[in-house]
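dumping this here so i dont lose it
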């Protein structure tokens, strides 16, 4: 019954522009003819992230010291909201650290939001103070350097319409770990 009003609304449109395959399939399920659904608006400036990441890698030692970054590290960048699943990420990271031992990477969480204090407390409860870093929110122009110094990118969201940070990380040349609940996963991520 919740889909009925959506079907009616979709029926009034002659075409649609959507982010990716999951969104295209959803509109088709609501009755939009597949040949009238077009892909293509969740994009980033790939060159901005590729150039910036490459420049950061060329100055890696200097930037790591300046930003107090570990080597190697997983990077996550998100607003600190429940749907971003950051508490679960910290729990999974704690299990990873226990299994990997001395070879374990660190985790850097860029961003800020209403759950910041709770995430800091959770980090403490999991005894991860020395291996999980919270450098705060970073502006668009600063992001390529963080991607360039990271070893892999993580987006564990339980709900994400697309997830442009995955586009950014991949443009910077990073391997990505992405929740299947992220809209971009079907189009951008190849398992394995």
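and the seq i came up w/
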């Amino acid at each position: 019954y919740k889909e009925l009003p959506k079907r009616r609304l979709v029926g009034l449109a002659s075409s649609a522009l959507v982010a990716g395959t999951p969104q295209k399939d959803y509109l088709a399920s609501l009755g939009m003819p597949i040949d009238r659904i077009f892909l293509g608006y969740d994009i980033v400036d790939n060159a901005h992230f590729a150039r910036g990441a490459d420049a950061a890698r060329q100055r890696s030692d200097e930037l790591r010291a300046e930003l107090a970054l570990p080597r190697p590290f997983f990077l996550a960048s998100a607003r600190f909201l429940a749907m971003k699943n950051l508490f679960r990420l910290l729990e999974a990271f704690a299990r990873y650290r226990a299994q990997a031992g001395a070879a374990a990477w660190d985790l850097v969480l860029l961003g800020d939001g209403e759950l910041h204090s709770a995430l800091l407390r959770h980090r403490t409860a999991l005894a991860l103070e020395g291996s999980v870093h919270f450098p705060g929110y970073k502006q668009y122009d600063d992001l390529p350097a963080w991607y360039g110094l990271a070893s892999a990118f993580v987006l564990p969201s339980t709900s994400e319409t697309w997830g442009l940070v995955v586009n950014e990380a991949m443009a910077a040349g990073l391997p990505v770990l992405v929740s299947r609940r992220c809209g971009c996963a079907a189009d951008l991520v190849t398992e394995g």
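The radius of gyration is 19 Å.
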